[in-house]
Design brief:
- With 199 residues, this protein is mainly β.
- The chain has a single domain, classed as Nucleic acid-binding proteins (OB fold (Dihydrolipoamide Acetyltransferase, E2P)), CATH 2.40.50.140.
- Helix content is 10%, strand content 34%.
- The strands form 3 sheets. Strands 1, 2, 5, 6, 7, 10, 11 and 12 form an 8-stranded mixed sheet that branches. Strands 3-4 form a two-stranded antiparallel sheet. Strands 8-9 form a two-stranded antiparallel sheet.
- The longest helix is centred in the N-terminal third of the chain and has 19 residues.
Length: 199
């Protein structure tokens, strides 16, 4: 299946989780070579996106690309999301920072990051945890083995609606056990509704 055939979706607004958009992700001390960004959505939007991804997987299984594929009895498709320690669903999208073409050419990519007005953000500005964002993603069906298959969320672009700078080693009031009163900001709600999403 060609990349142009992958379904493209744009999420509603949600909370950025461990974004690495200007430099690549480091996991267990090793550079993954990927730009990554997680997003947490409202419960209603989470349910809608899960349904959309599951539908994409069901369609992919019926396509010629998946003819004759076998699936382990106790296996399940990886669908690009997981439950965090607080019980929230986090969708994680990623893309390679370097592409090697069939001709052997090496192309370095930069991640497209836009502000709330649709203008490109300064390439020096790393987006921090807790920023309010939207993700543009491609849903890529894949099959590696009878136990490793599903839908990969390919990160295409990010829109930052409410910027939060990264804070190295910072702690929150909640981490320290302080009581925090919720405030509602009409101009920057923590989670927008699904208005503007395309799924």
């Amino acid at each position: 299946m060609a990349k142009n055939d992958f379904a493209q979706i744009t999420t509603p607004a949600g909370e950025a989780v461990y974004p690495k958009l200007r430099s690549t992700e480091v996991f267990d001390g090793e550079d993954t070579g990927k730009y990554v960004c997680g997003i947490k959505l409202s419960k209603a939007d989470t349910d809608k996106l899960i349904q959309r991804i599951e539908n994409e997987w069901e369609m992919a299984k019926k396509s010629p690309d998946f003819d004759g594929k076998r699936y382990g009895r106790n296996s399940a498709p990886a669908l690009g999301f997981h439950e965090d320690k607080d019980g929230d669903i986090v969708f994680k999208a990623k893309t390679n920072a370097v592409i090697k073409t069939k001709a052997g050419e090496v192309i370095e990519k930069t991640m497209a990051v836009f502000d709330k007005k649709g203008k490109p953000m300064d390439e020096e500005m790393e987006v921090g945890n807790g920023s309010t964002i939207r993700l543009c993603m491609l849903l890529r069906p894949f099959y590696a083995s009878a136990t490793v298959y599903g839908i990969q969320l390919l990160l295409k672009a990010v829109q930052v609606l409410n910027y939060v700078a990264p804070a190295a080693g910072a702690v929150s009031a909640d981490d320290c056990g302080f009581d925090v009163e919720e405030e509602f900001d009409e101009d920057n709600p923590p989670f927008a509704t699904s208005e503007g999403a395309d799924f």
